[in-house]
Amino acid sequence: MKYLVGEGFKAVVISTAYKQFLEVSALPGVEAIYGTDFLPEKYLLPEEEKNMLLEAVGEVESLDEIELDVRKGEVKKGRKSIDWLNEFFWKKLARMKAGKIIEDMKVMGGKKKKEVVESYNPENVVAIGDSISDFEMLEYAKKRGIAVSFNGNEFAVNHSNLAVISETAFAIAAVVVAYGREGVTGVNNLVEGDFKIVEEIADKLKGTEFYWVFPENTEELIVKSKQMRRRVRGEAGKLG
């Protein structure tokens, strides 16, 4: 991000993460930060509920992984996990004082992310996402610029026109700079393995792969992208 800001690009952070985390971790020069509103100090919970919530965390960790067929809109595996989550969040939690947290929380989800991007009315946008909460924003960007799936899962890859598989965030910077300097032609150079357009950071792109996303290579890219996702993110990489 520091590199992009230094190059004169307008960087806007739009994340599902809590604003407090984003404000602490964001670098100077970022134009704006959008995240989930949550003030935990507002809520005082009974000890019984606290213990119940801690137990629930353990149960969530033990749930089977959920796998969806995005194209067919079907659950491939993990139906019991989905049923458990629905029962807990929409029934049990709703009857607890902790349910007020869910009612009050204003999550920066998929539709809101897209609305934020739309509010800037960008002519040449590069949007980067990796999960289910990004697909609407990516779909919007795909029609107006470059939608980048960065080590994304099936939701991100299916709604992007560029897939980036890498261990380094400099790969994202390379896309933005290449697009800013030479448009689609610049990005295509990256896809073809020519990093001269971003020569100043080319040495940081070792092992990075850039692919245009087409119907015929989507499934292969999803597999490769998710493998890297889990490699760099560990267990968190399994999340949607």
Verbal overview:
- This protein has helices at 2-6, 19-25, 47-62, 79-92, 99-104, 110-119, 135-142, 154-158, 170-191, 218-233; strands spanning 12-18, 32-36, 67-69, 74-77, 125-129, 145-150, 162-165, 209-212.
- The chain is an alpha/beta fold.
- The chain folds into 2 domains: 41-104, no CATH class; 110-238, no CATH class.
- Strands 5-6-7-8 form a 4-stranded mixed β-sheet, sandwiched between helices. It has a two-stranded parallel ribbon with strand order 1-2. It has a two-stranded antiparallel sheet with strand order 3-4.
- Strand 1 (12-18), helix 2 (19-25) and strand 2 form a beta-alpha-beta unit.
- Helix 6 (110-119) runs parallel beside helix 7 (135-142).
- The radius of gyration is 20 Å and the shape is globular.
- The two termini are 24 Å apart.
- The model has no long low-confidence stretch (mean pLDDT 91).
